[in-house]
Amino acid sequence: MDLDRFRVKPGTKVSLKDYDPAYTGDYKKQGAKDALKAGIEQLAIYQDKLYAQNIYALLLVFQAMDAAGKDSTIKHVMSGVNPQGCQVFSFKAPSDEEQDHDYLWRSMRALPERGRIGIHNRSYYEEVLVVRVHPEILQSQQLPPDLKNGKKIWNQRFEQINSFEKYLSENGIVTLKFYLNVSYKEQRKRFLDRIDRPEKNWKFSMQDVKERSHWKDYMKAYEDMFAHTSTDWAPWHIIPADHKWFMRLTVGNIINDTLSKLHLHYPNVSDEHRQELLKARELLQAEEG
Prior knowledge:
By secondary structure, this protein is an alpha/beta fold.
């Protein structure tokens, strides 16, 4: 799989019309599922070494329109990971406490510890997406009037986010960002499925339909966000999402490819520790008599 085709090059002007949500390459469904299974096993190995080495951390950021499959992608791709080494945070509308802080505050509190994989289901990028599409949210934020009414606020936030992610990179936190690119037509199909299936009714609300009416505005906001915040240290990946089986495989492959480049390994044991192991072996073996 050519993973570079999904990565947004820094400074690139993005048009989502150039990205096919239904793309599956040369893969067929069963072949992709088999490849994903192997990828899950490989990810488990990488994660075990990541945890043992305790030097790097991996932050995975997922953004998408509703019904794109964020939850299911996280569930399937991370199914082989040891829960002790993985943390998932799903960010909803900010609480009163969170609104009393800067917009990056709650994400900073949820950063993964060294040796762990942190997953942000939605993130600080909501502040240049939802808030941009709905100006009334920005006006309700507890910011000085000259800041929230300034014409440069979005570029300022892009710069702040880039600096934040560079800080993470320079401190051993590797950041990967995924946009699950579902089509307008496929979203409608999935919404109807949620309405028609009783076990999925809880996942649907009228707000989902209202947000759908802002589709074009969201696409413009996403395109501008990609152009300004896909960097060498925290790249965006635009993942075809109309076929969930291909979406999951692609996300898993990108994560594994990134971890493979960290040269993860189990910690080397000192001579002193090795002698302790040999002594422990002797004591344990002596118990047999």
